[in-house]
Amino acid sequence: MTFRARHLLGIDHLSPPEIVTLLDLAEDYVALNRRTVKHADALAGMTQINMFFENSTRTQASFELAGKRLGADVMNMAVAHSSVKKGETLIDTALTLNAMQPDLLVVRHPQSGAVNLLADKVNCAVINAGDGRHEHPTQALLDALTIRRAKGRLHRLTIAICGDIANSRVARSNLLLLGKMENRLRLVGPATLMPAGAGEMGVELFEDMRAGLRGADVVMMLRLQKERMDGGFIPSEREYFHRFGLDAEKLACAAPDAIVMHPGPMNRGVEIDGTIADDINRSVIQDQVEMGVAVRMAALDLLARNLRAERGRAAAGVMV
Amino acid sequence: MTATLFINARLIDPEAQTDAPGSLLVRDSVIEGIDAEAPEGAAVIDCNGRALAPGLIDWGVKIGEPGERHKESFRSAGLAAAAGGVTTIVARPDTMPPIDTPESLEFVTRRAADAPVNIRHMAALTKAREGREMVEIGFLTDAGAVAFTDGVRQVTDTRILSRCMTYARGLGALIVGHPQDAGLSRGAAATSGKFASIYGIPAVSPMAEVIGLDRDLSLVAMTGCRWHADQITTARALPALHRARDAGLDVTAGISIHHLTLNEFDVGDYRTFFRFTPPLRSEDDRQAMVQAVADGVIDVIASFHTPQDEESKRLPFEAAAPGAVGLQTLLPAAMRLYHQGGLTLPQLWRAMSLNPAKRLGLPGGRLSVGAPADLVLFDPDAPFVLDRFTLLSKSKNTPFDGARMEGRVLGTWVGGRRVFGGHA
Questions:
Q1: Which domains does chain A have, with CATH numbers?
Q2: Bridge-partner residues for A255, per DSSP?
Q3: Which residues of B touch A231 (CB under 8 A)?
Q4: What sequence ranges are listed for the domain Dihydroorotase catalytic (chain B) (predicted)?
Q5: Which end of chain A is more exposed for a tag (fewer CB within 10 A), N or C?
Q6: Which of A98, A156, A108, A143 has the alpha carbon at shortest distance from A128?
Q7: Average pLDDT of A175-180?
Q8: Closest to B136 (Cβ–Cβ): which among A207, A230, A239?
């Protein structure tokens, strides 16, 4: 098996073969998820804890379903409302949980690098469900699976990532993944929403959305992260929509068969016109949600296999 | 089709930096030729050796619409401009309410049709000029805003200003800064020194300007935006300007005609018509700034026309509103610099016409074929004593009331149409 990682903390650590292995396994789970009886036993007997230090509905639900369909005992901890408020540090929370012997820990945290810090302190496998402005690996993987299924390949595509890139962990993970798979990447957005040093990331930068979309195979819209803005990145939502909102006229600059993606939740009329989001011939936004569960099942499955193998070696006294 | 030939003129060409006799042919709204043959039936204007130059482009004029129409309207400002040889007014957005939305810009654009001269508009840089959120720079640019400024209010939050600059860079928009440190300048009505101390006027060191300029230039270096300093008035700020240019920053600077012709002592016995923002400087600074204009370090001279009603000025010095009207006195005041030998007419016109046009992307400011026939005919030597009540502006707050001046406008043309002066 090519997938060797102990944790899934980011795309940065994955090799192209590991990515392909995970996506191939996810394809199997897509099929499973479309059946009426959706149970598998890859995680039977294992405990999965979802710790969300930041509010989430869709990602948490997706991970919860993924774990339950694979037979794990899943517990959701809404950390945002509990021990953190009482003053416990992140590491103490991690140690407390670790003492309960979980096998899989799914963590979202508002600060970049927090999930890596936590992963160092626990004995189980950790999946990063989004840390600050850093990474959101399962989102990039589900985007990759969606693209591969829609376009038939995951390489040599022109992909435009548009909007609030500076504040987006989705953009960073996608840049890493799609870059590793040898695609032509473009970033489109106002300079205030471009990360510093974007020019050195091996991508093309556009402040004119029409030019940035020209000939693109994939148009990936990002949510305007209002909650992550401390004010003043853009003058108004209406000017933002005028310059960077995806509407039919701007989409016409892309390739005729270009697909439209959005990690959700959408701000209709801010970064995307509702009619584009709902256009079943162009929008794959609902597919992304479906692929999300399958990709997370694959990730949980692969990490569980590695965890079992590691514990087996440890029990047999093999040096690792 | 109408053609007009100006003969026996002293042509002031700020592009070629020449001051030479010649004739100029205007057809319809544009300049068609220099020293060209007149077509059949052309009207002839004999300039009698007087100076003919591109009309002045006055960058930074306050007009009281909306909000203070009793101080100035587009109509009254336009008439004053025409009488002063100003063919393009670049209006400030610090009205009540400020010009900070495409809708308010559309309003003033419509109102400006009342004026007999060209009017262009600047928009505010932040909403309500509060320094918190940037305006819709994209929409406002599309609606015709030529630059963005909060006027004399500095955006004190550097993070917000840096975002404004970064966003503006993407649209190629020009930001006009007022580089005076807000903290040091608070409440100041004069430049600190012996004069202000003896008279007990709250004062500020010119260092406030150096601090403000250094700060803004650092942000320009960081963001790469196009930037213009509204007024640089002290020699101590010039090295920073030189460094910025040497570093390749897209930076220009202006100064008011009042800072070039008056100094701190002119305030005299608490004369409120001499209260300006920034305050009048020392004579050393004034002379240094005249030299800086001659050297091209300071790009733009403007009147910073700021109409104030009598009640706003009939107050103790430090409580009086700052600013002076200037549309009609810009040219004769500039003639002081010419007659004192500090600046030639082509140098003055470079700063009062060509450079503002270039910086703001306007078509005027040139005496070249194809340029709009925005022209001023004037006698640089004609003397007069200014009576402020003869000014056409609704407000009469000029520091030159009763002053002996030289330089009289004889005629003003906008797009080939005469808007001032019945005979040459």
A1: 7-135+289-301 (3.40.50.1370), 137-285 (3.40.50.1370)
A2: none
A3: 132-133, 160
A4: 49-234
A5: C
A6: A108
A7: 97
A8: A239
**pLDDT given at position A229:** 62
Dihedral, CA of residue B80, residue B83, residue B88 and residue B93, to nearest 10: -10
Contacts by residues B107-110 (CB-CB < 8 Å, ≥ 24 positions apart): B107/B66, B108/B63, B108/B65, B108/B66, B108/B74, B109/B143, B109/B144
pLDDT band at A80 (very low <50, low <70, confident <90, very high): low
Q: Are A275 and A235 in contact (CB under 8 A)?
A: no
pLDDT digits (tens, 9 = 90+) for A203-223: 999 999 999 999 999 999 999
Name the residue with tokens 């963001």: B223
Q: How confident is the model at residue A118 (pLDDT cuts 50, 70, 90)?
A: very high
Predicted local distance difference test score (pLDDT) of residue B424: 42
Between the alpha carbon of residue A288 and those of residues A140, A145, A259, B223, B289, the distances in Å are 10, 8, 12, 37, 64
Burial of B12 from C-beta contacts in 10 A (0-12 / 13-18 / 19+): buried
Confidence (pLDDT) at B224: 97
Tokens matching residue B86: 């100003």
Where would I find the H helices in B224-275? Answer: 238-246, 257-261
Q: Summarize the confidence of residues B72-86 as an average pLDDT.
A: 98
Homologous superfamily (CATH) of B55-360 is Metal-dependent hydrolases (3.20.20.140)
Q: Do B138 and A242 lie within an 8 Å CB cutoff?
A: yes
Peptide bond into B97 cis (omega under 30): yes
Q: Does B132 touch chain A (CB under 8 A)?
A: yes
ipTM: 0.89
Contact predicate A67/A95, CB 8 Å: no
**Rounded CA separation B307/B145 (Å):** 22
Q: Convert the pLDDT of each residue in A96-114 to its tens digit.
A: 889 999 999 999 999 999 9
State the smallest CA–CA distance between residue A307 and chain B in angstroms. 46
Which pTM does this prediction carry?
0.93
Please report, as a single letter, which amino acid is at residue B204: V
Residue B358 is inside which H or E element, if any? helix B355-360
A252 pLDDT higher than 60: yes
| Tokens 């999930």 belong to residue | A115
For tokens 């129409």, name the residue: B69
Residue A265 DSSP label: -
Number of CB pairs, chain A paired with chain B, less than 8 A apart: 44
Taking each helix axis from N to C terminus, what angle separates A137-151 and A169-180, rounded to the nearest 10 degrees?
50
